[in-house]
Design a protein that fits this description.
Elements: H1 2-23, E1 32-40, E2 43-51, H2 52-55, H3 65-79, E3 93-103, E4 120-129, E5 137-139, H4 142-145, E6 151-158, E7 161-168, E8 173-175
Parallel strand pairs: 1-6
Antiparallel strand pairs: 1-2, 2-4, 3-4, 5-8, 6-7
The chain binds zinc ion.
Length: about 180
């Protein structure tokens, strides 16, 4: 059983790597953020890839003071995960590490529309949980924090298996009971 679990997890890693390779070719869809949730033992990781259009309303390189302020405010909002999601209190999860950045798309010189850029915000949060089985619901404050957002595509993996969710602002949560 442990072996099967390990294979499933390896498969997920491959998928994640392939997705990363594909991302550099395909452009993201505005209005749709991506989230990978991975659970391993008492650790839960959240990795968000969010179109700049959804976060600050533009994806070109911020040069004006006004745009630079917007980017810095967005990074500050992302820096506090509670602006993005929340976990049940009784799961006793504590943030251990986080990484927030703005990823500027590298232009492919063969691309026809070089003037178009598609910057994304990247946020990764890792938690260590006292009672990870108590995570039966994850709420997303993200949709209220960033009003231009409309959807999150969630890939969820744990020792139980993998599943996916599409989350929108009118029902901003996922139910994970039995999936951890
Ligand atoms: Zn874009």
């Amino acid at each position: 059983m442990r072996f099967i679990t390990f294979l499933i997890f390896l498969n997920f890693l491959n998928t994640a790597i392939n997705a990363e390779e594909t991302r550099q070719v395909d452009q993201h869809e505005h209005g749709v953020g991506e989230l990978n949730i991975a659970i391993d033992g008492s650790v839960i990781d959240f990795e968000f890839m969010l179109p700049g259009a959804d976060i600050v309303g533009f994806e070109y390189e911020a040069k004006s003071d006004e745009d630079i302020v917007k980017v810095n405010e967005a990074l500050a909002m992302l820096d506090n995960y509670k602006n993005i999601f929340s976990l049940p209190v009784n799961s006793n999860c504590k943030l251990s590490t986080s990484q927030i950045s703005l990823k500027e798309e590298e232009h492919d010189e063969h691309e026809e529309h070089e003037e178009e850029s598609h910057n994304e915000f990247y946020a990764k949060y890792s938690f260590s949980c006292g009672n990870i089985q108590e995570i039966d619901r994850i709420e997303f404050t993200y949709f209220k924090t960033f009003a231009n957002s409309s959807e999150l595509e969630v890939q969820f993996i744990s020792n139980v298996g993998s599943t996916s969710f599409e989350v929108e602002g009118d029902a901003p949560f996922i139910l994970t009971e039995g999936k951890i």
